[in-house]
C-alpha cells in the first residue's frame, strides 16, 4: 500500500485553474433574503472556490458581514441588488437560467442537476419562509436537496454551496 501524500498549499495553487480577477457573469448564487451574516461569509468563500459571484440585497448590515466573512482578504465578486424580483427578471431577460433552491413539486434532485452551460442564477430563499411567491414565477426550474433527517432544509450557506459545486461541474 502506498503512503498518502498530502498536497501543500503551494502544490494546490500550482495545480488550480487560473481565474481572471473580473466577474465572468456566468454563475451567481443569490441569497436575496438573508437572515444571518455568517452564511454570507461562507457563501462568499464558496463563490471564490468555484468562480461564481454573490448577489445580495442592500441591507445595512451586509457589507460588514461580507467583510468579516471574506477570509481571503481580497476583493470578491459581489453584486448589489435593490429589488430582488426586478433583478431576477433582468437576469432572465439577459438569457440567464434562474434556478430556485426550494422544496417544490417537480423539483430536480440535486444529484440530477446538470452543470451550468449558460449563465445561471441559483436563488436561495429566506431560511424560514423560502422564496417569496412574487419571485417563484421568475424561476425556470427548482432544485431540491434530498434529506433523510428530521429537518426540512439545510441552512442557506450549506444549500448554496452544494448547488454551486454541482452547477460549476466539480461534483
From TrEMBL:
Keywords in alphabetical order: Methyltransferase, Transferase
Domain spans labelled tRNA/rRNA methyltransferase SpoU type: 38-165
Any one GO MF annotation of this record: RNA methyltransferase activity
Origin: domain of life: Bacteria
One GO-annotated biological process of the protein: methylation
Alphabetical list of Pfam families matching this protein: SpoU_methylase (PF00588)
UniProt feature coiled coil, ranges: none
Record bears the keyword Coiled coil: no
Keyword Repeat: no
Designated name of the protein: RNA methyltransferase
